Amino acid sequence: MNYYHKYISKIIILSIAVVSFSCGEKYDSGRDLYTKDGLIYKIGEKKPFTGIVKGKANKKVVEYEVKNGLKDGEFILYFTNGNVEIKGKIVDGENEGEWNYYYANKSLQSQGGFKNDLVDGKWVWYFPNGNLKEEGKYVDGKREGEWLSYNDDGGLYIKRYFKDNVMTDSVLAK
After folding, report:
1. Structural domain containing residue 138
2. Distance of alpha carbon 28 from alpha carbon 49, whole angstroms
3. In CATH, what number is assigned to the domain containing residue 128?
4. Which of 21, 43, 117, 156 would you label with 33, given CA atoms 20 to 30 Å apart?
């Protein structure tokens, strides 16, 4: 499994894991919410929670919207320095639409989309200097078609071809 595919998998796992952390309403300590049967509730209430959750996960601040017990709206994870690390949208508890990932210095690290909680469509990665690092397309969570990788100075160095997440060919650029 490629580094970038592992990175996306970790992001998906982190997004799912955050639901299991006890988080509170915005600026709350987080001890008054819990998850049951996949829904978020406020302690003492039978109706699923609706509101903005802000809490900590692995020493980082996470903030997201909840509607009727499910994450639904903007999702933001912050580095410990306060800069945005991940920003995306969740619909009915699933990652959806464009997601952006940043380096701690605020420069864009990667950008791409989700559809039905799976990576989908064009994804691009950048070096910390802003040059393109890699680009390719996912279909239903699997690499598909031509993937291009670049040197940190911006020069194309390898083309890889995927079919159903399996590399079928690899060619060094000239």
Report:
1. 3-172
2. 14
3. 3.90.930
4. 117
